[in-house]
Design goal:
The protein contains eleven helices and eleven strands. By secondary structure, the chain is an alpha/beta fold. It folds into two domains: 65 residues; 199 residues, Rossmann fold. Strands 5-4-3-6-9-11-10 form a seven-stranded mixed beta sheet, with helices on both faces. It has a two-stranded antiparallel ribbon with strand order 1-2. A two-stranded parallel sheet has the order 7-8. Strand 3, helix 6 and strand 4 form a beta-alpha-beta unit. The longest helix has 16 residues. Bound molecules: glutamine. The site of glutamine (GLN) has 10 residues, from loops.
Length: 288
């Protein structure tokens, strides 16, 4: 089959499911990965005949897209802070909002003296500590997650991006302390987390690609106590964050005030809620 024919079929079969621009992005990404073509090269390569395995990949991808599987899981990769990350169904697909969180942490800490030990709680694909390690070269990065599978992938992502991050597996809701998780390190200058914060009641507004494929445990919290993870992390920070150390959260946009109150009541100072590019309450920073 020729690339031009495939393109026609691809757009036709996805027409009822996705806006044209989105289908184009999918097609471009697959062409880039499978054929090494840049988006602007695709239209002049219409006569190119696809190899069997390339065609099979496109057909499988098309079938998966029809089932609303995220393109990042189909390709097994995503981009975050201008770096490439492997992703799979054990990890959330990194979001642009989280890039803003990373940006803020880099800005605040670029002249921080050593030691600058940073712990990321609920690391998933490892995109937060890995991008911090790349840009805060004087920092030591630590990251924990409840999922063995996520940690395995995060370790691979750290290697792929050539940075050192130390990983540990722990369920922070069950363990009240991190003792002995990392040899010789018990206190950190910075703690960061993008914990699950989407309430059940918000599911109605979410898209199928998220609902059907992304890990539940990374996204959702109960309607009764949506701040559960923030409660637990501020408690942990009482032992594991140095005095004057900084705490950073990604937060639920609808719960900015409540999250702020919780952090203030846990004894933190300089508690600030910061909006993302879309104007939503999205980040919180505080000092212990
Ligand atoms: N921002 C993500 C979303 O909208 C949620 C991330 C999280 O729960 N930590 O799907």
């Amino acid at each position: 089959m020729k690339l031009a024919e495939l393109k026609l079929q691809f757009f036709k079969e996805l027409a009822n499911l996705y806006p044209k621009e989105e289908s184009r992005t999918f097609f471009n990404w697959i062409c880039q990965q499978q054929l090494g073509l840049k988006p602007f090269e695709i239209s002049v390569k219409g006569e190119q005949t696809l190899k069997d395995e390339q065609l099979r990949f496109f057909e499988k991808a098309l079938a998966d897209l029809k089932l609303e599987k995220p393109i990042q899981y189909i390709l097994g990769k995503s981009y975050f802070y201008s770096m490439e990350f492997m992703v799979n169904e054990h990890t959330l697909i990194p979001r642009p909002e989280t890039e803003e969180l990373v940006s803020m942490i880099i800005e605040d800490n670029k002249t921080h003296p050593r030691p600058l030990r940073i712990l990321d709680i609920g690391t998933g694909s490892g995109c937060i500590p890995i991008s911090l390690a790349k840009h805060l070269t004087h920092a030591e990065l630590y990251a924990i997650d409840i999922s063995k599978d996520a940690i395995k992938l995060a370790k691979e992502n750290a290697m792929k991006n050539q940075v050192v991050v130390r990983f540990g597996e722990i369920d922070i809701l069950k363990a009240s302390l991190l003792s002995n998780l990392f040899t010789k390190v018990d206190q950190f200058e910075v703690i960061v987390s993008n914990p699950p914060y989407v309430r059940e009641l918000e599911k109605a507004t979410m898209k199928n690609n998220v609902l059907k494929y992304e890990p539940q445990s990374a996204l959702y919290v109960s309607d009764e106590n949506p701040l559960l993870f923030y409660e637990q992390i501020t408690k942990l920070a009482a032992c594991h964050l140095k005095t004057n150390g900084r705490l950073y959260f990604e937060i639920n946009q609808y719960l900015g005030d409540q999250t702020k109150d919780l952090v203030i009541n846990a004894g933190f100072k300089e508690v600030e809620v910061i909006k993302d590019t879309f104007g939503n309450d999205r980040m919180l920073s505080a000092v212990r």
